[in-house]
Write a structure and sequence with these properties.
This is Iron-sulfur cluster carrier protein. The chain folds into two domains: 102 residues, GMP Synthetase, Chain A, domain 3 (2-Layer Sandwich), CATH 3.30.300.130; 246 residues, P-loop containing nucleotide triphosphate hydrolases (Rossmann fold, 3-Layer(aba) Sandwich), CATH 3.40.50.300. The chain has an eight-stranded mixed beta sheet with strand order 8-9-5-10-4-11-12-15, with helices on both faces. Strands 1-2-3 form a three-stranded mixed beta sheet, with helices on both faces. It has a two-stranded antiparallel ribbon with strand order 6-7. Helix 3 packs across helix 10, helix 5 packs parallel to helix 6 and helix 7 packs parallel to helix 8. By secondary structure, the protein is an alpha/beta fold. About 9% of the residues have low confidence. Helices cover 31% and strands 21% of the residues. The longest helix has 16 residues. A hairpin with a 2-residue loop joins strand 8 and strand 9. The termini are far apart. The structure holds adenosine-5'-triphosphate. The site of adenosine-5'-triphosphate has 21 residues, from helix 3 and helix 9. Adenosine-5'-triphosphate binds next to helix 3 and helix 9.
Length: 366
Amino acid sequence: MTTFQTSADKDAALRALDAVIDPRTGQGLAAAGLVQGLVVRGGRAGFMLEVPADVAAAYAPVREAAERALAALPGIEKAQVVLTTSAAEGVTRQRKGARLAGDPAAEPKPPQEAQRPDHVKRVIAVASGKGGVGKSTVSTNLAVALAGLGLNVGLLDADVYGPSAPRMMGIDADPQFVDGKLQPLEAHSVKVMSIGFMVDEGAPMIWRGPMASSAVRQMVQDVRWGTEAAPLDVLVVDLPPGTGDIHLTLVQKLAVDGVVIVSTPQEIALIDARRAAAMFQKTATPILGVIENMAFFADPATGAPIPIFGSGGAKAEAAALGVPVLAEIPIEIAVREAGDNGAPIVTRDQGGAAAEAFRAAARALL
Ligand SMILES: Nc1ncnc2c1ncn2[C@@H]1O[C@H](COP(=O)(O)OP(=O)(O)OP(=O)(O)O)[C@@H](O)[C@H]1O
C-alpha cells in the first residue's frame, strides 16, 4: 500500500479516469477537465467530479464508473468520487439540498440519506485544514456559548482520529440505546456524542478511512439528538482536521448549513485552511466565517497584544473568501487548562478575553 501520494499514482489514476468517457464532450474525464482535487494515498483514491448543474443527473452513472475505474487500480482499497456542480453555474454556496440542481436522482445514494438527523434545525461544522490549531477548543466553546444563549445545542465530535469532546466537556460514559437510538450524553447544557465514548482512549487511531466514515455516519443517523417536542436548535460538528473521506461523508450525508473554519495566523495554517475552504466551496457548503485562534498573547505587564504566530493573515484570508472573521481568540493558559479540566472557558463567568471572544462568535453565528 502506498502511504504517500506520488505522481506515478496520480498519473495511473488519471489514465484510468480517461478511460471513462464524459457523455457531453466524448473525451475521457481527465481530458475533459472534470477531475478536481484528485487524491491517491494510503490505499484510497478519490476526487470531485465537477459538472454543470443542469446536467448533474446524467452524471450519476459516470460517477459510479469513475469509482470502479479507481477501485480497479493496484493497491487501491477504497475509491470515492463525489459529484458536485461547478461554480460557473451559480449554484455553489447554497444549501446542500440545492447542490445537485435540486435533482435528487443525481444523488449517488437515496435522497433520504442526505438529510439531517431528525429534529435538528441547524447543523454547523467546525473545520480546519491542519491539526492542533484549536478546532476542538473552538467547537466545545461555541457549543457551550450557544447553549448559554438559550439554544438547545448538540455537539458531535466527529474527529474519529483523536476525539477530544470527552476530555474537553468532562464526560465519559457508555451512551445507551433506547428504542433503537443512541442517547447522547449531556454536559454544560450541551448534548454530546463522540466516538471517544465508544472506543478506548488511544484506540481511535484504528478507525481508518471507510470504517471511520461509517462510524461517523452511524453517529449522525442513529443518535436521538432531539424529539418532536424538544428539537435541537443547532448541532455543532467537530470535524477531523483535513479534507478527507470523513468530510466528504458528512458533506454528502448531512445537510450542513454552514462551516466555520478555524486557523492560526501562520501562513502554513492558512494554506491548509484555504484547502479546507476550497473543498467546502466545491461541495456548495456555505462558509460562515473564519475564527482565528491563538491570534495573539496579551502581555501580562501591559496587556498589549503580542502576535506570537504573526498577525493579519486570517483577516486577509477571510476577506479573500468573502466571509467575516467571527473571532480572534487570544492564547490564554486558562483556555488550555479549562479544556483539560473538562469545563470550557466560556463556562466561567470571569472567563477573560478568550471567553468573551467565543461568546461574541456564538452571537454572530446566531
Ligand atoms: N486560544 C488558546 N489558548 C491556549 N491554548 C489553546 C488555545 N486554543 C487551543 N489551545 C490548546 O491547544 C491544544 C490543541 O487544541 P485542540 O485540541 O482544540 O486542537 P485541534 O485543532 O482540535 O487539534 P486536533 O485536530 O489535533 O484534534 C489543546 O491543548 C488546547 O487546550
